[in-house]
Amino acid sequence: MAAALDRSEVKLAQDLQRKGMSRSASVLAVVMATRAHARPEAELVEIVRQYSGLESAADARRAIQELLTRGWIQQTGSYGTTLTHQVPKLRELIATELGDPGIPDQLLAMRANLEPHVRVLGAMKDEVVYHTFMDLLRSAQQEICLPMLATPPYDETVRILRERADAGVRVRILLAVPSLVAKWRGETMRSISATRIRQWVEQFDDRDTVEVRLSSSQEDMELATCVSVDGGVVRYDIYDPYSQRSLEGVMVEFGSPQGLVPNLVRLFQRVFDDAWDRSISPRRGAIVWRFLKRWWKLWLTIAVIAAAFIPVDVDNWAEILIGFGGGIGAPFIVEEAPKAYRTVRKWRVQ
């Protein structure tokens, strides 16, 4: 749940304050009812200081004492530690204080609990994993991100993706290059992978919102068989991509409750976006274009310095061009040197 109280929570705290409670105790009562903190008192003081009205440690301690006196929070022993937490009927006590029987349900609705949004769906071979995957694709409104090693374009999957593309949904399909598929799954998969790449491209050649790209990075393709929809729901296929097939994994789904984006959802999107930026189009000439695009500073540097040795009747011609070429080449070296170092290290380890 967000650190700041929303308007409905602030209003409840203000209503309690008008009933004679201190501001800090009113805020803490709402916080405990919606966040359900249970910590040693010293830790609780530091946790609740993020909320408006409880920034002062002294105010937070006084609020805890006031609610303890009221019997709205309690302290109990747990594994040798004394925890301060809400009493089981705190929401009902607040409702009684304010004379509004609808407040318990209101407070319960405010409480953000991520647990229902984290689901272990089961083994990848289970029927429920397949059907819920199709339902998830159908629900997309903005974007679908599909990293796959060498999955064929199954008819039902293609049909749903085409439908969502027609509705304006952006679909990004990231496949592994055949050489990587052959390295992971055996040489017989090289030609099969190439065929499937061609099939994916052909299936969506007439859809502007669908793009297929290829990745040659083992690290990037560790995401294979996972999926993200609308940047709010992510499914992770948990398996060892270097020694297991994706169907041997277990599917776990992470959703985003209203107003929250869990860290694993953000992590997937960041990793996928980085992998996408490093990927290339499977169309002819894409590799050449990517090569020229990445190294244009190097080519320009070489061309400028070479031009410096052409005899031209201009004062300081060579010095000017060499200086210009150095100005282009120096930043390029600074940018590319760390990447080159990592590449060499990785090659030596392998």
| DSSP strand content | 15-25%
- Average per-residue pLDDT, rounded, comes to 87
Shape: extended
Question: Helical element count?
Answer: 14
Main attributes?
350 residues; alpha+beta; seven-stranded mixed sheet; three-stranded antiparallel sheet; 15% strand; extended; membrane; Replication-relaxation; transmembrane helix; transmembrane
Polypeptide structure, described:
The protein has 350 residues and is an alpha+beta fold. It contains 14 helices and ten strands. The protein has helices at 7-18, 23-35, 41-48, 57-70, 90-98, 103-110, 127-138, 155-166, 178-185, 189-203, 263-278, 286-294, 296-307, 317-349; strands at 38-39, 73-78, 81-86, 118-123, 143-148, 170-176, 210-215, 227-229, 233-238, 250-254. The strands form two sheets. Strands 4-10-9-8-5-6-7 form a seven-stranded mixed beta sheet, sandwiched between helices. A three-stranded antiparallel beta sheet has the order 1-3-2. It starts with 6 loop residues before the first helix and ends with a helix. The mean pLDDT is 87. The chain crosses the membrane at residues 295-314, 320-338. Keywords: Membrane, Transmembrane, Transmembrane helix.
